[in-house]
Specification:
The complex is a heterodimer of chains A (256) and B (251). With 256 residues, chain A is α/β, with parallel strands linked by helices. Helices cover 48% and strands 12% of the residues of chain A. Chain A is built from nine helices and seven strands. In chain A, helix 1 runs parallel beside helix 2, helix 1 crosses helix 9 and helix 3 runs parallel beside helix 4. The longest helix of chain A is centred in the middle third of the chain and has 29 residues. Chain B is 49% helix and 13% strand. In chain B, strands 3-2-1-4-5-6-7 form a seven-stranded parallel β-sheet, sandwiched between helices. In chain B, helix 1 crosses helix 9, helix 3 runs parallel beside helix 4 and helix 4 runs parallel beside helix 6. The radius of gyration of chain B is 17 Å and the shape is globular. Chain B starts with 7 loop residues before the first strand and ends in an 11-residue tail after the last strand. Classes of the chains: A alpha/beta (256), B alpha/beta (251). At the A-B interface, helix 6, helix 9 and strand 7 of A face helix 1, helix 6, helix 9 and strand 7 of B.
Chain lengths: 256, 251
């Protein structure tokens, strides 16, 4: 094992769901900078195209999709098409997601189903679709983006919290089920991250107040989450499976 | 990938095994290294490997359980190398005894090396880290510190105590932008298990790991190097366990 090349993503193909903006876009760009070709995937068409353009500018190949992650058949089609275009898929980052700050009483059946469809069902069938090829090549990396709220809950958005916890369940179970094929499955649980979503939903005043409650006194830039994703996507983590890395500034420290 | 250029890393117990792997990988990534070991000859060998990579080295030979010696080591390292940015509390050893066989000396030594050694090594380097408002402490725990084992309870508890320091220091030192994390290795093909287990036993143990193998020391070093790098500047109070899926615990 060459220590100086294990972090390289050269020759790998990575599929990042929800990579049109925010953290997903940051993951796509960092992995491309490290040599990976990228399946850029987002229901937001213009955003996905913008990410794709930045990756092509880095000299990497791109396959672009706008399919809905909640549509299982579409995910199987996406994998077939992307594998034809780029040769294979080595890395899946289940990043697509949506936040919704609602109390228990406010959560409608539609809210509930949408939350679990995107995060849980979406991640499950993206994983199912991609693992056939990974099993054949006896190697693969699946990274589920959970959240600190999936680790210890929050005083709102219980459907989001539970969906993110379910991703930790998939992580642990898949690590065991897929180990015989040398497929490594891990989770990243971001804490506060400065992306468009919280800026729009909460505003800067609230973000600044929340940053003060983090032991490190700040929220992260999206790239700081990408570094954890890239570590788990690389050969450097070939003995790591079933684990979670939580870049959260010390806000959440749980049992281990 | 992640650069450690311009950083000084003190790695306890870096004369051989995993500690040496940490020293070499971090040197490859640009760090100058304080090589510490209780034995002079292995420390010199690691130091030679680091020098070959073009990095500066300072060698410290002492028992980490000797608080005065650890303080001298930290002061000397700071004056020779300029400062210590990264501390890897790696020095340790295994002892496969059952509870009834563990003597008071066994018990005291286990906690003196792992727990007291790590505590006072950290205490000795944090003053400088606080001044510079930047530092990284990586405590080497063990998968046995997370889950226990049917043998070596003093080792398991000492490794668990390192997780306690990790969580507490992450909170206490965050105001100075000092990041404290743990790495909890699973099976590693390094000195310890190879000396203690026959080839056959080792093979049987590897068969029980979901990924069907023990890892090379460098695979632990990758996790340490990630946590020691600026890429992990928002990661504190956490643990990474490269264990091949053998241990998957609550998070």
């Amino acid at each position: 094992m060459m220590s100086d090349t294990a972090s390289s993503m050269a020759g790998k193909v990575a599929w990042i769901t929800g990579s049109g903006r925010g953290m997903g876009q940051a993951h796509a760009i960092l992995l491309a900078e490290r040599g990976a070709d990228i399946v850029v995937h987002d229901v937001l068409v213009d955003e996905a195209k913008a990410t794709a353009a930045r990756i092509e500018a880095l000299g990497r190949r791109v396959f672009l999709s706008h399919a809905d992650v909640a549509n299982a058949t579409a995910m199987h089609d996406l994998v077939a098409q992307a594998s034809r275009a780029l040769g294979k898929i080595d890395v899946l980052v289940n990043n697509a997601g949506v936040g919704q700050h609602r109390s228990i009483e406010e959560i409608t059946v539609e809210d509930f189903e949408r939350m679990f469809s995107i995060h849980v069902k979406g991640s499950f069938f993206c994983g199912q679709a991609v693992m056939t090829g990974m099993k054949k090549q006896q190697s693969g990396k699946i990274i589920n983006i959970s959240s600190i709220w999936g680790m210890n809950g929050a005083d709102t958005a219980s459907h989001y919290c539970a969906a993110k916890t379910a991703l930790l369940g998939l992580t642990k179970a898949w690590a065991k089920e897929l180990a015989p094929w040398n497929i490594h499955v891990n989770a990243v649980c971001p804490g506060g991250v400065i992306t468009e979503m919280p800026i729009k939903v909460q505003g800067w005043d609230k973000i600044r107040a929340k940053e003060k409650k983090v032991p490190l006194g700040r929220w992260a830039q999206p790239e700081e989450v990408s570094y954890a994703v890239a570590f788990l996507a690389s050969g450097e983590s070939d003995f790591i499976t079933g684990q979670a890395i939580s870049p959260n500034g010390g806000e959440t420290i749980v049992g281990f | 990938m992640s650069t450690l250029a311009g950083k000084v890393a003190l790695i306890t117990g870096s004369g051989d095994g995993m500690g040496r792997a940490h020293a070499i990988l971090m040197a490859e990534r640009g760090a100058d290294i304080v090589v510490h070991d209780i034995k002079a000859q292995p420390a010199e060998q690691t130091a030679a490997a680091v020098r070959k990579l073009g990095r500066r080295v300072h060698v410290a030979v002492c028992d980490v359980a000797d608080v005065a010696a650890v303080r001298r080591m930290a002061a000397e390292a700071a004056s020779v190398m300029g400062r210590v940015d990264i501390l890897v509390n790696n020095a340790g050893y295994g002892q496969r005894s059952e509870t009834q066989a563990i003597t008071e000396e066994d018990f005291d030594r286990m906690f003196a090396v792992h727990v007291k050694g790590s505590f006072f090594a950290a205490q000795a380097v944090i003053a400088g880290m606080k001044e510079r408002r930047y530092g990284k402490i990586v405590n080497i725990s063990s998968m046995w510190g997370m889950t226990g084992a049917p043998v070596a309870p003093h080792y398991c508890a000492a490794k668990a105590a390192l997780l306690g320091f990790t969580k507490a220091w992450a909170k206490e030192l965050a105001p100075w932008n000092i990041h404290v994390n743990a790495v909890a290795p699973g099976g590693v093909k390094s000195g310890g298990p190879i000396k203690l287990d026959s080839a056959e036993t080792l093979k049987a143990k590897e068969a029980r790991v979901p990924l069907k193998r023990y890892c090379e020391p460098v695979e632990i070093a990758y996790a340490v190097a990630y946590l020691a790098s600026p890429e992990a500047d928002f990661v504190t109070g956490q643990v990474i366990s490269p264990n091949g899926g053998e241990v998957i615990v609550g998070y």
